[in-house]
Specification:
The protein is an alpha+beta fold and 152 residues long. It has one domain: Roll (Bifunctional nuclease domain). Helices cover 26% and strands 42% of the residues. Strands 1, 2, 3, 4, 5, 6, 7 and 8 form an 8-stranded mixed β-sheet that branches. A hairpin with a 2-residue loop joins strand 5 and strand 6. Helix 1 packs parallel to helix 3 and helix 2 crosses helix 3.
Length: 152
Amino acid sequence: MEGCEGICELSVKGVYLVEVTEGVATAIILESKSGNLVPIYVGHLEALSINQAFNNQMAPRPLTHDLLMNILQRNEISVENVIIDEMIDGIFYASITIRKNGVNMEFDARPSDCIAVALRAKIPIYMSEEILEAEAINPERLEGAEVFDTLL
């Protein structure tokens, strides 16, 4: 598809309200360097956290992902990478790798948590090329989608 040799770097294009068969859902739209779009549907609270990080906004009180970043920083732990690397029964799976004292530790995590942390840590989001190829959508599917506004 785009020659990213198995793992592709993506960025967050935005957080949107998208029409689906069941009504309206919140979706994080990821975009590859070649312009491929992949929606990841998340709950409203996850969308709020991701949208705030995407727009460089701060809540009056720390949200869960802000708290996590504060704990990691205070303990001199860096976030190395996040990767969305599996799709099982229509559900994305991801992992996050952190580093302390030169030792990497990988943890299973929801893609929404990985994206929220990646935005706060200012690190790239990766996706397996196989999943990107299978899940990329035609941009026309986003016609009529509305930008998600924060609730704070």
